[in-house]
What does this fold into?
Amino acid sequence: MILPIVAYGHPVLRKMCEDITPDYPKLQELIANMWETMYSSSGVGIAAPQVNRPVRLFVIDSEQIIESLEEEEKAEYPGDNGVKGVFINAHIVEAAGEEWAYNEGCLSIPKVREDVYRPETITLRYVNENFEPQERTFSGVTARVIFHEYDHIDGKLFIDHLKPLKRRMIKGKLEDITKGKISVDYKMIFHK
It folds into this structure.
């Protein structure tokens, strides 16, 4: 089932999310719905707070980004073949490498894209959808997508990484999103 996506301005997007246990109600259904919601809205990742659940869960599919790149662009991200996966109770072990810019957008902040600087790699400790413990290091575009979704479960948004001047420049767009004055081709929840 396609779930509505929470729009910028809703308080759930600013909550520090809680770890969950394997008996979290209808967890597998929620994961399936998050995949369906992400793909139907042309996303590459979606976090539980974006579907109004303040829990440490996100899904990503960076394979679709890597597949869409030209060969010379793929060379910019050596060793990154993309990842399609479920991340539950994720916690950062290490963020390393030089920070680099990438133009990010967010389903909860539609029609706003900005360059964000993030480290080259991220090492995460998490459990997968079967609650099997994982610890992996990701790089390239995949690390970028993970950093972005990880921010969501920590109550942060990509715009928090922008310099104050840039934030002021997009203030009007953000206010329009908060007020529901935006047209997207997916269902959104606006905070009243």
